[in-house]
């Protein structure tokens, strides 16, 4: 296979601003079909990319010319559509969070294993240049023992990002399952697992304080502990009204790493010796600057499928990051520290 023929299911903002532009920019990809429940939306998208249009994803999956699909749908549809696609013999790139429960995630991974097809979850933080450089520095031992961390992902909310604005599914509890923690927090759980290893325990406060007429959370602060004993905090928020924050700070024995925390440098290393190293790297992209059209997610997925490689974020990896979110939900409900991987994954309640 020299060309990956893809279908994109869901023509909302995530498809329009990331998946479709990145597929179009990849010379090894042909956009064969797009699908959306709204005929006008799907026809407009199909016309733009010269693709076939569908309003029923099951019909799209019957198309033998499609090798792989992107699932760009509300959270509650990730599992059923991904499983159907895998069972139809398609490779799948699924948006995050991969599912709304551990059981759903397990079914998705089972379908991938039985079909022999690639399942990748679209976590993009691992591909950010400063994050990859930080991992090199940490793994090399240059920071010595890691003591602590703090990571944050916040912006004004999906009403400025979603194609449907304030009427978006993001604010519908039945469709979203979870708000800022699932939208933004899961990205940071995946990043911290990538940088520091598995997270084993979680304590959290998750609340709705900034948005009206919705039951999904818009503010969350978690305390995380890794299997190596490193403790730190994670904040996810839709209430940063004057702009976004997508920064991480790692505190180590020999120095501190500041990731996406400086307006001029993607990574700043401050050493105990007094030395400071400023790294000029490709900056992390944000939604308010035209979208993440170079997230490297699509290129990585395409390379994995065409060359038979295991993607960096498999379904199993996606499930481990989801497990942290589920543990945070349970911690907020029970007001107790929760061990990751044993959460029942019940819907968030206040």
From TrEMBL:
> What name has this protein been given in UniProt?
Dehydrogenase
List the InterPro entries hit by this protein, alphabetically: Gfo/Idh/MocA-like_OxRdtase_N, Gfo/Idh/MocA_Oxidoreductases, GFO_IDH_MocA-like_dom, Glc-Fru_OxRdtase_bac, NAD(P)-bd_dom_sf
Which segments constitute the Gfo/Idh/MocA-like oxidoreductase N-terminal domain? 4-123
Gene3D superfamilies on file: Dihydrodipicolinate Reductase, domain 2 (3.30.360.10), NAD(P)-binding Rossmann-like Domain (3.40.50.720)
Q: Name one GO molecular function term.
A: nucleotide binding
Location of the GFO/IDH/MocA-like oxidoreductase domain: 131-257
């Amino acid at each position: 296979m020299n060309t990956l023929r893809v279908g994109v299911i869901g023509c909302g903002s995530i498809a329009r601003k990331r998946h479709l532009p990145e597929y179009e920019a990849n010379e090894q990809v042909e956009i064969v079909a797009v699908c959306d429940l709204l005929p006008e939306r799907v026809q407009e998208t199909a016309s733009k990319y010269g693709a076939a249009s569908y309003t029923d994803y099951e019909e799209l999956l019957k198309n033998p010319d499609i090798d792989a699909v992107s699932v760009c749908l509300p959270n509650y549809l990730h599992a059923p559509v991904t499983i159907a696609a895998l069972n139809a013999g398609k490779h799948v790139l699924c948006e995050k969070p991969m599912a709304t429960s551990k059981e759903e995630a397990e079914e998705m991974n089972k379908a991938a294993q039985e079909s022999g097809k690639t399942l990748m979850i679209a976590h993009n933080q691992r591909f950010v240049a400063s994050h990859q450089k930080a991992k090199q520095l940490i793994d090399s031992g240059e920071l010595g023992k890691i003591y602590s961390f703090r990571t944050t992902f916040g912006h004004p909310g999906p009403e400025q990002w979603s194609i449907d604005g304030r009427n978006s599914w993001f604010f519908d509890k039945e469709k979203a399952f979870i708000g800022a923690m699932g939208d933004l927090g899961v990205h940071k759980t995946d990043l911290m697992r990538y940088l520091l290893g598995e997270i084993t325990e979680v304590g959290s406060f998750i609340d709705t304080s900034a948005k009206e007429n919705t039951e999904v959370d818009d503010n969350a602060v978690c305390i995380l502990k890794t299997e190596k004993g490193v403790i730190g905090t994670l904040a996810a928020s839709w209430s940063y009204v004057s702009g976004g924050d997508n920064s991480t700070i790692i505190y180590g024995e020999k120095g501190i790493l500041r990731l996406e925390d400086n307006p001029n440098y993607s990574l700043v290393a401050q050493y105990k010796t007094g030395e400071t190293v400023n790294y000029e790297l490709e900056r992390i992209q944000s939604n308010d600057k035209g979208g993440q059209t170079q997230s490297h997610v699509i290129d990585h997925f395409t390379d994995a499928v065409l060359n038979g490689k295991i993607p960096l974020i498999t379904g199993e990896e996606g499930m481990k990051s989801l497990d942290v979110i589920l543990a945070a939900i349970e911690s907020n409900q029970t007001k107790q520290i929760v061990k990751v991987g044993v959460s029942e994954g019940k819907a968030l309640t206040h």
